[in-house]
Write a structure and sequence with these properties.
single chain, 436 residues, 8-stranded mixed sheet, 5-stranded mixed sheet, elongated, binds histidyl-adenosine monophosphate
Length: 436
């Protein structure tokens, strides 16, 4: 298709109807589990003041350093397309006085995000995440519940068995102060074995060196000092209790001391779901505690924990697992007609069938019966209703079972109710969508 004049920008994809089946299904599962757990949905704007992301995700993170789409308004203000949602959710939490709501405040989102990274499998410039945030509660039981909901969603999407839960603690900010010094001391003199990014980060953000994906950096990271050695008693207790709660919930996890996550706002618990086949490169989702973020953004000291998963990656794992979501786009009935009077009658027939919840298509722009029936075949319709001049005159209609290839002539009157019964008891009703 490279000779086309216009194509979507690099790393940005259309979501075609077949993939929307997956999107819709994932949204349904996410909504179901979030509602069950008392979460309410939030959407923050597609772009925010650039400082919102700098202050939260961190100046020295990859995302802020090189992956944001930043632009300037006509009045010179700098904005960025949102690379993730936690920062915007915290900004909205403060802006709308949600800190006055009963705690914990539980919010979830299903949103597009943007990161300017090198496009490759599972890494795009526009992608979607579903995620949830719990604000106002410090208990490690909440961390366990957040992880459990993420796991239940993975289970209902059919991919839980393909993922391994990686778990670590990065302690409190005080713990990390000491640890950073230990790390800088350890890496000093080894700079030449580090990749360019790590060499640059060594003094600003040395913990990121632990989860670099370059082979040489990984070897050095495996021998680096461990955070465990500087964890305070409180931090150790938090992590110990979290593991006890996860054990109680029957969740399997792997302790991974090199997991630090790429965003600066975390403290204590960090976790990711990795593909058992592809490892860290393509985590479906990740999250953790971010106890200092609300305060850093100008609010009161508010503990918080959250998680987000990539929808495109989730879909690719579902496909690998052979999961096909239910096809709600299927055509139940195709209405074919011949002649002007039949066409007029078929118009209201089509609408009445749709009104009782039957997916109905009619090719009212096509004139030949052969063309219309060819389309009914292509659309894989379950039934066809055929209305010609003879049927109009006799007050009948032809009902064709497309799967069996059999047909019968039935009275036109009562055909809507009959089709409702044939297709699983759908009835004419005055119930409105908003009454569901
Ligand atoms: P994150 O690990 O940066 O965390 O992103 C979460 C997930 O989004 C990743 O595991 C991945 O599946 C997906 N993802 C990230 N970047 C891309 C990309 N370029 N293309 C496709 N998928 C991508 C966060 O965003 C945190 N806000 C999670 C969180 C919520 N922590 C606490 N609350």
């Amino acid at each position: 298709m490279s000779n086309l004049k216009y194509q979507s920008p690099k790393g940005v994809h259309d979501i075609l109807p077949d993939d929307h089946l997956y999107f819709s299904f994932i949204k349904k599962v996410v909504r179901h589990h979030c509602r069950r757990a008392g979460f309410r949905r939030i959407s923050t704007p597609i772009f925010e003041n650039v400082e919102v992301f700098k202050r939260s995700i961190g100046e020295s993170s990859d995302i802020v350093e090189k992956e944001m789409f930043v632009f300037e308004s006509k009045s010179g203000k700098r904005f960025a397309l949102k690379p993730e949602s936690t920062a915007g959710v915290v900004r909205a939490y403060l802006e709308h006085g949600m800190s006055n709501l009963p705690k914990p405040v539980e919010l979830y989102y299903i949103e597009p995000h943007f990161r300017y990274n090198r496009p490759q499998k599972g890494r795009y410039r526009q992608f979607h995440q579903f995620g949830f945030e719990v604000l106002g509660e410090a208990d490690p039981a909440i961390d366990a519940q957040v992880i459990y909901i993420a796991h239940r969603i993975n289970q209902d999407l059919g991919i839980a068995d393909r993922l391994s839960l990686q778990l670590n603690t990065i302690g409190s900010s005080d713990d990390r102060k000491q640890f950073r010094e230990d790390l800088v001391n350890y890496y000093t003199g080894k700079e030449r074995s580090l990749c360019e990014d790590c060499r640059r980060r060594m003094h600003g953000n040395p913990m990121r060196l632990l989860d670099c994906k370059e082979e040489d950096c990984q070897i050095l990271a495996s021998m680096a000092p461990k955070l465990e050695s500087v964890l305070s008693e409180d931090s150790q207790e938090h992590f110990k209790l979290l593991q006890e709660y996860l054990n109680e919930l029957g969740l399997k996890y792997e302790l991974n001391s090199t997991l630090v996550r790429g965003l600066d706002y975390y403290s204590h618990t960090v976790f990711e779901f990795w593909s058992k086949h592809e490892g860290a490169q393509n985590a479906t989702g990740g999250g953790g505690r971010y106890n200092g973020l609300v305060e850093a953004m100008g609010g009161e000291d508010t503990p918080a924990v959250g998680y987000a998963a990539g929808i495109e990656r989730t879909i690719s794992y579902m496909k690998e697992a052979g999961i096909r979501p239910p096809n709600k786009d299927k055509v139940d009935i195709f209405v074919a007609q011949l002649g002007l009077v039949a066409k007029k009658k078929s118009l209201s027939l089509i609408n009445s069938l749709r009104d009782i919840g039957i997916n109905t298509v009619g090719a009212i722009g096509k004139s030949s019966m052969k063309g219309q029936m060819g389309l009914a075949d292509k659309l894989n319709a379950k039934y066809s209703l055929i209305l010609g001049q003879v049927e109009v005159k006799e007050g009948t209609i032809i009902l064709r079972n497309m799967e069996r290839g059999s047909q019968e002539i039935v009275p036109f009157e009562g055909i809507v109710e009959k089709m409702g019964e044939l297709l699983g008891g759908r009835k004419l009703s005055s119930k409105k969508l908003w009454e569901e």
